[in-house]
From TrEMBL:
The lineage of its organism: Bacteria, Bacillati, Actinomycetota, Actinomycetes, Micrococcales. Transmembrane segments: none annotated. One of its GO terms (molecular function) is catalytic activity. This is HIT domain-containing protein. SUPFAM superfamilies: HIT-like. A motif (Histidine triad motif) lies at residues 97-101. The active site is at residue 99.
Amino acid sequence: MSCVFCGIAAGAEPASVVRDDGEVLAFLSTAPVNPGHALVVPRAHATGLADLPADTGAAIWRLARELAVALRRDAAWAEGVNLHLSDGAAAGQHVDHVHLHVIPRFAEDGLRITDARHEPPSRVELDDVAVRLRAALGG
């Protein structure tokens, strides 16, 4: 099987499964930021978000929310949670199967998701981008 996440979903590859809801499953990351870092994936292969049926996407987010809530119930698990999904190689997607990271976080865990490379855009620039995105959405 060429897709490791398809192999996990089929039971052919090892994984520490946290929950299997049939359509989606969650298992622990082998490269966790902190203990409890899980990946939520669709059982059926979808390379990117454009390949993912909307109802399956909703099931992924539903399970990710359940995991995040469970992690936040006990400060020993997490002080906060990041949900992270990369769509495409340019965005840092390393496995070509949609997966949503549920990352337990602590204030001083060292992971930083920031961008200080440039000045924030002006309101005019933001409004221009909003117009272009609305057109891309068909509205």
